[in-house]
Amino acid sequence: MGKGRFEAFSDGVIAILITIMVLEMHVPTGETLAALAPVLPVFLSYVLSFVYLGIYWNNHHHMLHTVRRVNGAMLWANLHLLFWLSLIPFTTGWMGESHWASLPTAAYGIVLLMAALAYYLLQQTIIAAQGPESLLARAVGGDWKGKASPLFYVAAILAAFWSPRVSQGLYVAVALLWLVPDRRIERLIGAANPD
Fold first, then answer.
1. pTM for this one?
2. DSSP state of 165
3. Which of 106, 113, 159, 168 could form a disulfide with 153 if both were Cys (CB 3.0 to 4.6 A apart)?
4. Which domain holds residue 139?
5. Into how many domains does the chain fold?
């Protein structure tokens, strides 16, 4: 099976998730800067989630450049990832509307943790299908960011119950860690296809 529909479906789902999040933000009543104060937590939660979805889209895009053929296991692993990403708008809204209360902040972290584990599962499913010498296996290598991120998420989930601000700081730290795109896949593709 080719990968065109696989990529297009994933791109479409992520685009819809971003659209859902922005539609959930309500225009403040009033025309002063003070009128923005009640919606600021919602806006900041949206910005963080937009960055996270952008990071997933970017890395997913790069990862799929290494795929030659798609099999059923990859399709299901990808749907598993998209399921967890689809919960980001809900937890984003809950966290923002509650002004970063403990339980919604922890729930946001649980969704991020599960999305990270689902991404890892998809990555390993692709490597298993293409072999240990595949382009993706060589590009991923030790993948220290992929291994460190779930630890940060677990710490943030636990921290949410005594300091949601610490928890949010950890979520921002992980996003910053991933904000710079990983060039390993680009370098390997470039070396394999010099034009």
1. 0.90
2. H
3. 113
4. 4-192
5. 1
